[in-house]
Design brief:
- This protein has 169 residues and is an alpha+beta fold.
- It has one domain (2-168): Alpha-D-Glucose-1,6-Bisphosphate, Chain A, domain 4 (2-Layer Sandwich).
- Helices cover 37% and strands 36% of the residues.
- It contains four helices and eight strands; from the N terminus they run αβααβββββββα.
- The chain has helices at residues 2-23, 39-46, 52-55, 141-168; strands at 27-35, 59-63, 73-77, 84-88, 91-96, 100-107, 113-124, 127-137.
- The chain has a five-stranded antiparallel beta sheet with strand order 1-8-7-6-5, covered by helices on one side.
- A hairpin with a 2-residue loop joins strand 7 and strand 8.
């Protein structure tokens, strides 16, 4: 019985070490969209955090100020229509007017999973190119990565399309 417990503890410990090492590798999902509106207009929509739920199909509630170091309060949409999904509190880590909004959020605890959002605007001859990235790191990422690779791009793309429609009207 003692041997079985020792083997079980060793397997669990080895698993945690593996996840800790693998989870330190940051994973990234990237999407892009062209928006026929100037970067200043797209920026004003992106930095009006309190109104994200008015145009984004993936956000139920959003509160906060787009200033460096500020903490936001974001509630995603739930699986069932009209229900709340996960709620998190990202902190704005980089801000470059009309060009870059970036935040980081700890899911549970930082070593378990950290999520980052990068919204980068590039001026084009027809308006704005939005580069929308989500980054993930932490122990849970290796176990959840295949699910995130399938589920996150459609979510980002729906948000991108909604932003495009809102900015172009």
């Amino acid at each position: 019985m003692k041997k079985l417990i020792i083997i079980l503890v060793w397997v669990i410990l080895t698993g945690f070490i593996f996840l800790a090492i693998e989870g330190n590798d940051m994973k990234e999902i990237r999407t892009e969209i062209e928006i026929a509106a100037p970067p200043t207009k797209v920026w004003s929509i992106l930095t009006d955090i309190d109104k994200w739920q008015e145009w984004s199909p993936v956000i139920n509630k959003s509160k906060g100020t787009a200033t460096l170091g500020s903490k936001l309060d974001i509630t995603m949409c739930g699986k069932e229509k009209g229900t709340d999904g996960p709620r998190y509190y990202p902190k704005i880590t980089k801000l470059d007017k009309d060009k870059l909004l970036q935040w980081s959020a700890k899911m549970m605890a930082g070593f378990i999973m950290t999520n980052g959002k990068i919204l980068k605007l590039e001026e084009t001859s027809t308006g704005t190119k939005l580069i929308h990235k989500e980054t993930f790191s932490g122990m849970m990422v290796p176990m959840m990565w295949s699910h995130m690779e399938k589920g996150v791009p459609p979510m980002l793309n729906s948000m991108n399309e909604a932003l495009k429609e809102y900015a172009e009207k």
